[in-house]
Design a protein that fits this description.
The protein is built from no helices and 19 strands. The chain is an all-beta fold and about 220 residues long. It folds into two domains: about 90 residues, Beta Barrel (Thrombin, subunit H), CATH 2.40.10; about 130 residues, YVTN repeat-like/Quinoprotein amine dehydrogenase (Methylamine Dehydrogenase, Chain H), CATH 2.130.10.
Length: about 220
């Protein structure tokens, strides 16, 4: 029982995400400058900063599901870096004023971004360096955006107290565009102090969605 490891960061942590193999963790401390992004290897108890200088204020970082790529979102753009070659692979301009959340599709070819200016943006990395689709269903700032790891589902959570669930299908045929269809709106969280749903996360195997709200509750929606 108790903590197995404690990570010492140079600034206040905003986000953290695991690599799919479970040995690496990436953390983001937006105000820490060049050390805003740190990659931690659990087995060796080591941490390193992959970047020597900051390219804007980093908001979120995520690993690619199968390649040695790291997705880094600043306030307006998403950059994709090759960690082994230490090189920039792609830069995507999202059209957002301030990115709040990001997720990477299980294929690694699509990125979902949420923003404080109420946008949910889908970026197809094979198609363009600009958004494939911009969704404006929320009335207030978007706090969470997530793809399901197995099912063609995605969700967005916002300060309006609602979670929107979409059918989100991608195809192996590169000439066929992704299909995004609104499915339902999940309600249950109360808005507290101007804040609503702060995060949303899918179950790794089931079509279940967890949401965390400023009202101090975590809710599970089954078979969405």
């Amino acid at each position: 029982a108790g903590a197995r490891a404690v990570l010492q960061l140079t600034g206040e942590a905003a986000t953290a995400a695991w690599h799919r193999k479970g040995d690496y963790l990436v953390t983001v401390a937006p105000l820490a400058g060049a050390a805003a992004v740190l990659i931690h290897q659990v087995s060796k108890r080591q941490s390193q900063a992959p970047f020597k200088k900051a390219h804007g204020q980093v908001q979120v970082a995520r690993f690619h599901p199968s390649k040695p790529f790291l997705f880094v979102a600043t306030q307006t753009a998403v950059r994709v870096y090759h960690l082994v070659k230490q090189a920039l692979v792609k830069k995507v301009l999202t059209g957002c004023k301030w990115i709040s959340a990001m997720d990477v599709h299980p294929t690694g070819d699509h990125v979902l971004v949420g923003s404080y200016d109420r946008r949910v943006v889908w970026c197809d990395l094979d198609l363009s360096s600009k958004p494939y689709k911009t969704l404006k269903y929320h009335a207030r700032a978007v706090r969470g955006a997530a793809y399901h790891p197995r099912y063609p589902l995605m969700a967005s959570a916002a300060d309006d107290g609602r979670v929107h669930v979409f059918h989100a299908a991608v195809y192996s045929d590169l000439l066929r565009e992704p299909l995004i269809v609104p499915l339902k709106i999940l309600r249950g969280h109360a808005v507290a102090g101007g804040l609503g749903v702060l995060a949303a996360a899918w179950h790794p195997r089931q079509p279940w969605l967890f949401s965390a709200g400023a009202d101090g509750t975590v809710r599970l929606f089954q078979d969405v």
